[in-house]
Amino acid sequence: MAVIGIMSAMHEELAAVLARMPDEQRVTVAGRDFWVGHWQGHAVVAVLSRIGKVAAATTATVLLERFQVDTLVFTGVAGGMGSGVRVGDVVVANGFVQHDMDASPLFPRHEVPLYGRARFEADVNLSAQLAEAGQQVLAKAAQHLGAGTLADFQLDSPRVHQGLVISGDRFVATSTESQALRLALPDALAVEMEGAAVAQVCHDYAVPFAAVRTISDRADDAAHTDFNRFIREVASRYSLAILSQWLTNRRSD
Ligand code: ADE
Q1: Annotation says 217 is catalytic
Q2: How many domains does the chain have?
């Protein structure tokens, strides 16, 4: 049976997934708790990604080496970069770049040395499946979040976007920095701190990878009014619902 690795960026998301895995067993490797079990009949290993590129790459490597997962999906939040990518929207990555990789003048800016590329692709089918599941969930956003939460966070017709996600070891919280990133990588829809690293590891192992991120902020000075509440009441619920819908759709594929 195929084994699906689920990396969650946040404790709340992982807790929501584990609540759906009736038989999970904890296995600790490299100081990380990996939860091995089943969700909706699929063999799953769920784990907290940890924050930043190196920590997430280590977590991914253990999932691939020790737990032999043959599909890897990542859920978390990200800062919106593209125009029209609003708080409460969902971005499904179709590719990843490390925005803080710069070995110039030895290699072009953003290129990962010895890979001959800056961009690592998400798996096309997996991304399409996650985007479809995301659309199904967002079409019923009020049902998943409650009308009160939608109103409190002023979420109006949330949308799913597909495109480039950029990663770096920095939480982007100033307009100056997000503008500089937009200038350097104009196609970027969202910025976070892990995706491109996990994509590189999955590229090395030739394992399909895709990531879905709820936009929690606009990566600017206007910090979100209540980040923790947003994670609890919006992002965690979206991730759980999207993954659950994806697993349901997979079964009927
Ligand atoms: N994750 C969520 N928001 C982010 C931001 N603004 N920068 C980096 N990672 C993020």
Answers
A1: yes
A2: 1
Q: Is residue 176 part of a domain?
A: yes
In the reported structure, the alpha carbon of residue 190 is separated from the centroid of ligand 1 by a whole-number distance in angstroms of 8
**How confident is residue 224, by pLDDT bands cut at 50, 70 and 90?**
low
**CATH number, domain with residue 218:** 3.40.50.1580
Tell me the backbone φ, ψ of residue 128, rounded to 5 degrees: -65, -40
Catalytic residue among 13, 89, 194, 233: 13
Residue 8 lies in a domain: no
Spatial distance between the Cα atoms of 133 and 23, rounded to a whole number of angstroms: 25
4, pLDDT greater than 80: yes
What does the pLDDT read at residue 252? 57
79 alpha carbon – ligand 1 mean position (Å): 4
Ligand 1 environment, Cβ below 6 A: 77-79, 171-173, 191-193, 216-217, 219
Q: Is residue 245 part of a domain?
A: yes
**What phi and psi values does residue 28 have, to the nearest 5 degrees?**
-100, 125
The pTM is what? 0.96
Domain that holds residue 109: 76-252
Q: Is 233 a catalytic residue?
A: no
- Give backbone dihedrals phi and psi of 146, rounded to 5 degrees, phi first: 90, 140
